[in-house]
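Researcher: Checking consistency across runs. Here is Malate dehydrogenase (NAD) /L-sulfolactate dehydrogenase again:
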Amino acid sequence: MRSVDFAPADLIGFGSAALAAVGVPQAHAQLTSRSLVAADSRGISSHGLLRLPLYIEAIRAGGINATPTLTWSAGSAAVAVLDADGALGQVAMSAAVDRVAALASQSGVGAVAVQNSTHYGAGAYWSDRLVAEGMIGIVTSTTGPTVTPFGGSQKLLGTNPLTVAAPSVGAVPLTLDMATSNGAYGKVVAARNEGTEIPAGWAVDKDGRPTVDPAAALAGALLPFGGVKGSGLAVLLEALSASLTEAAFAFETEDIWVNRSSRMNTGHLVLALDTAAFTGRDHTERRVAHLQQRIRGSAGPGQSALAPGDAERATAARHEGHVPLAPTTVELLDELAQSLGLTLPAPRPPSDPT
């Protein structure tokens, strides 16, 4: 299915206008729109503008607070807790990243736990901000209930994303950004919208039977990656994201995908290690670059080996100057534009056959 290309600035402007139209302050609207467009430019469409109509509907229904009051409490010199008051996840995470960077600059390490938040988009968007400050960043979050534990049949866990990033020479960080489910929930939604199947092993239907039908998967449950090991990691990330605050576990949550008025009380945990406090930023960047080079150089004949984050950055470089959207996403955005009295930007001439 051929994608439809748009200028990045046009999409950011449209997303900002759409959010502002439902009462989101301009700075918050701009931040959120930028994060969504950045995900699309990296090929992570499940966390891109596909979600904008959901955010708008949840704001209108009360599931997301367009004008939150962020409240801080401190646990120690290196720790802080943020109550996000139902904010857009991007708004909560921007504040959390700024605070954790300041804490790590003072103490060498910093930790911020967040409660009463919502979906924050792609995790790499936030770890990149920490890496730019010479820090190693670790980010994780709860989500709505979508995943069954290994051996289970009930939706008890979220897709529980994990992002870990370390600075490297040349501003090309080593970045792992992954869900702990075999596939991201947003990718299943995108497959349903596009009328395509999902890969085998991603999900079971409501009766616990394996399925490649995204609609049946959404009615059933996603599966953790890596069997018992991936399931164990998902459970631990659930604990880290929600047990340090009053944030809700996935099984205590009604997802805004299901009920737009649901206050999900999503929990995040953001950790930062200031490399300057250890052996120095230059040392860490050189060592990480050496590791990346060895990984890339390990490919066998006719193969390629990528360090974590390489694929997404290559996609972003290929999409420089344009952002491809799936036709089904364009249809959703056009419907959203009409409902808000806005106009979707005109697409650019095709430049990417994907």
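Researcher: Does this match what you'd expect to see?
Model: One thing to look at in this run: The domain at 4-181+224-281+310-340 is CATH 3.30.1370.60 (Ribosomal Protein S8; Chain: A, domain 1).
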